[in-house]
Amino acid sequence: MTLPSVDKDGYLLNLNDWSPEVAKSLAQAENIELTEDHWEIITLVKAFYQEFDLSPTSRALVRYVNQHLGPEKGRSIYLQTLFPPQPALMVSKLAGLPRPANCF
Prior knowledge:
Blueprint: H1 20-29, H2 36-52, H3 58-69, H4 76-82, H5 87-94
Helix pairs in contact: 2-3
């Protein structure tokens, strides 16, 4: 599969280019094999974007996951294991969303 156009950091230039296949390709480039746990968070982050029209920063991501999936998954360490090295950046990239503001 040919990846759509991305910026210098690997984020999609056009959000409409996203698909599950694109997510898999982006994840493969980051040495991440997507599981159901990954998809659960990706889906939730896409819902966050729909609700707030922005990608979640680290604290917002943890809080949102905690609210929707409970304290077991709404922890930084859990998200870190799924989306290293920086969960907010990585999950936004794989979800086809813009880079979160204030995340370096």
